[in-house]
Amino acid sequence: MKSRSMRWSAYGILGVLVFSLVRAITGSSDLTSVGTFNAALLLAIPIALAGLGGLFSERAGVVNIGLEGMMVMGTWAAGFWGYQRGPWMGIVMAVIFGTIAAAVHAVATISFGVDHVVSGVAINLIAPGIVRYLSVIVYQDSNIPGAGPTQSPSVQSIGSNGLPFLSGGHVLGWQSPDLLGSIGAKGWFFISDISRILRGLTGDVSYVTMLCLLLFPLSWYLLWRTKFGLRLRSAGEAPVAAESLGVNVYRVKYIGVLISGALAGLAGGFLAIVASSNYQEGQTGGRGFIGLAAMLFGNWRPGGLLMGSALFGFSDALQLRASDAVHSALLVIAIGFAVYAVAQWRQGRRVGGAVTLALGLGVFALFTYVKELPGPFVTMTPYVTTLVVLSLATQRLRMPAKDGVPYRKGGDS
Amino acid sequence: MSRRFSPQSIALTLAAPLVAAVFGLGISSIALMITHNSPLETFRAMWDYGTQVGSLIEMVNLGAVYYIAALAVALTFKAGLFNIGVESQIRLGALFAAWIGAMFTLPPVLHVFVILVVASLVGAMWAFLPALLKVKRGVSEVISTIMLNSIGSALSAYLLADHFQQLVAGSNNVTTKPLPQSAWVPDLMSWLNRVGIKDVPGGGPYGLVFLAVALGFLYSFIVNRTRFGFDLRASGASPTAASVSGVNPKRMIILAMMLSGAFAGLAMMPVMLGESHAYTLGFRGGVGFTGIAIALLGRNNAVGIAFSSLLFGFLEVSARILELNGIATEIYIIMQGAILLSAVAAYEVVRRYRETLNARALARAGVTA
């Protein structure tokens, strides 16, 4: 256990070293700036929450492609109740709306045995229609400033805080010093870079973000260390066996799907209230699907899922903040490919290593010859990242055995 | 199966769509009542407007586009795959067809044919990517096609703005160079005139409505009457059984996805060659997603999909009148969604009920399952 965590810290330090090097070479400071990492955290959370939602549902054996639609419901509810009753109420209503959408999915898939993907797609189709319909009704002729058929009025923001002493957090109204921030501003190679990264991740963090992050260890504990978790996972692995041992499989699946919707709704609420300041149509932008991809990448486990989301969040943040940072990130990717190629070669996978090396050289050529990426290519970053990561990672995954298989009590499936 | 056409069996077949329609109307009535609108009056207004000649023509035009998109999706359903990427295959197919088609003039019919070939080739190539990722790297096509949708729309925006754009003085509309006349397909208004229907402002049905019909026959033929279609359905029903009987599953995945992409690339052709004569920035989005819903509702059957496309087209067109009555037009999306969800649930319930009936019949006949 100890050697594993040491290995991971070594990887982490090596990664930061590469980033600082590239930052120093290319001069694009956004690669390791406080702002980028603060934004990365902000953008990773909705993806991670959606992925965690997918995890609860799929561990119970129900594929949930409807996460995106449930998130959409969450964004709308957060905007509507957020501006009327304050941001916390908005978050609560987002969770409730996500759960309502999930209830539809649960009834369709568990009680009626509808194909899981079909039901999920239906939810993704209906949800945008419903929120547009609701928006037209409540906002169209309302004369509320900022409100319209595609967006809600702005919502008050929820407070934020940071680590005291290290990241300038405030304790009982007293502003503590900002140690990491001042080291980060010094411009020392590597040390300042790592300080800026840590400052971005631990300073000015919304209270909601902290709560959301807590959900991950909590979910792990719930799923892998409690009786309920064992039952839920058994419904996804071997529902017939579970039923024969007295587990109420239908009920467990219902709970899994409902939790999934609640988390997706929360992800939507987070997008509307924390990552932005109001509901906007199309705000989810496929993040529900990217969350699913993060879950696949994480091999149906909370830790891996969080890592996948961090990667997607980071690529999204780069894309949003500066296009030259995306360009510099190409160099990081090229170096990453090269390192991976060497590792493959040493494991005896000569062909795989050669292909990876060729890919790395290709990316390096792109970095060298294309000086500035056109805007649309920058927007593609998170989606391309998702595709590349999935195609590199999906080889050794193991999904729950009966994931996506409709279960019928007394049936033989 | 002598009981295939028994009254009970027919009743069961009709039960699912009927239940779905009732449920769909019920849910939309609730949505309307929540907002203090009378469902009856709303439905009547929609019916009155929707059954006018102009609206019916629009319904057919919209239905043709949806039909092609839905066939593309259904092809992959038959193979046990799910091509959510139809949306971007449509878009890129249309964009490249418009760009290449405007480069030259050819004899009329040949020109149209060349454009159609380009559109379906580009669609097939864009669908090849997720197929390759699935076969080579085991990436779920559901996720990869969704990602490729986002990538495709960014790519097409870039290509249109930076490379394919034709600047028109005094216009803000971003569009490709207009297609020469030889690539235009005239509408069918003159045919309607002959049977006594007068001109309507919106124009007649697109000439390429026939393309949709032809593709429907082609789809039916491929799936039900060819060796390829049999292999396709076999690998959809049971991949293991199919591979035991000599079907190469990887080859099937690639062929099914590419064929689906080829269909998808054609979806916007009725509009492009019949009306817009160019690819514009305001290109209609969401056709691919609606196509998914229609394929599901039509149960992957060419005739079923045809009815579903017309139904979706009708709801969308007839809802336009509601804006005048101060009702949000988006009610039609709720109707479509409610019909779809209740339909798939009803199909499943009927299927289970039938299974029970069969089991009982077998038990009566003295066979133990």
Give an overview of the whole structure:
The complex is a heterodimer of chains A (413) and B (369). By secondary structure, chain A is mainly alpha-helical. Helices cover 71% and strands 2% of the residues of chain A. Chain A has two domains: 7-28 and 322-395; 32-162 and 204-320, ABC transporter involved in vitamin B12 uptake, BtuC, CATH 1.10.3470. Chain A contains 16 helices and four strands. In chain A, strands 1-4 form a two-stranded antiparallel ribbon. Chain A has a two-stranded antiparallel sheet with strand order 2-3. The longest helix of chain A has 26 residues, at 34-59. Chain A is globular. Chain B is built from 15 helices and two strands. The two termini of chain B are 18 Å apart. The chains are: A mainly alpha (413), B mainly alpha (369). At the A-B interface, helix 5, helix 12 and helix 16 of A face helix 5, helix 6, helix 13 and helix 15 of B.
Question: Which helices and strands appear, and what pairs or packs with what?
Answer:
The complex is a heterodimer of chains A (413) and B (369).
Chain A lengths: L1 H25 L7 H26 L7 H19 L1 H25 L4 H24 L20 E2 L8 E2 L2 E2 L3 H6 L6 H12 L2 E2 H19 L1 H11 L1 H6 L4 H25 L13 H11 L4 H20 L1 H24 L3 H20 L5 H19 L20
Chain B lengths: L6 H28 L4 H12 L2 H26 L7 H16 L6 H30 L3 H24 E2 L8 E2 L12 H6 L14 H17 L1 H11 L1 H6 L4 H17 L3 H8 L10 H11 L4 H17 L12 H34 L5
Antiparallel strand pairs in B: 1-2
